[in-house]
Amino acid sequence: MKEKIQSALIVAFIIVVFFSSIGFVFAQNNIQQNSGYYQLNLVIEKQPSGSNASGEIYSFYVLSNGMLESSNIIKVPFGKEVRISIVNFDPGTSLPFGSSAENASGVVGGSILATGSVAAGISQQLSSKSAQSISEIPARDISHTFTTSTGLNIPVLPLSTEVAYTYFNTVGNYTWGCMCDCGAPSMDSTGSMTGQFVVLAP
Ligand SMILES: [Cu+2]
Fold this sequence. Notes:
Blueprint: H1 2-35, E1 38-52, E2 55-64, E3 67-70, E4 73-77, E5 82-88, E6 112-115, H2 120-125, E7 132-134, E8 144-148, E9 153-156, E10 160-166, E11 172-177, H3 184-188, E12 194-200
Parallel strand pairs: 1-5, 4-12
Antiparallel strand pairs: 1-2, 2-3, 5-10, 6-7, 6-10, 8-9, 8-11, 11-12
């Protein structure tokens, strides 16, 4: 009888240890997913008012908590993986100023994921299964670029959603801008097609 109780206790102990270790593994995974990278959501959307010679003015916005905020100052953390999502509602193309704007640079793996659909939600789910991995876009097919003075360049297709992973390894104040001839008023105004880019100290 005593032996039976003992073995029952041992079995119970093993079960408890087994399930608590599974719980521990799940908890670990959740922590890694939540703090694995910093998410920067950018949206290229029509400005509420104003137009240029060729029509509407499109601007970069930062999507934060479901709200489109100004891209006047874009902040990213130092030394941490940053996942940049760009949702582009502009159907038009605009020629880049230089051929370097055609290549994805400063991104992990030298490529970006792109899909020809426009939805803020897509950027969260975009994976190599649903998107094309591309390392360059021919000049004639570029709509805008997201380019920083830290050496990052992401060419953006018209009406598309793109995702790129990158790191910023120098703290400081930099600039971001679009390297395309996409309309004089938007190109010159901060918070539209150019602005400050700040890499924050940890
Ligand atoms: Cu542009």
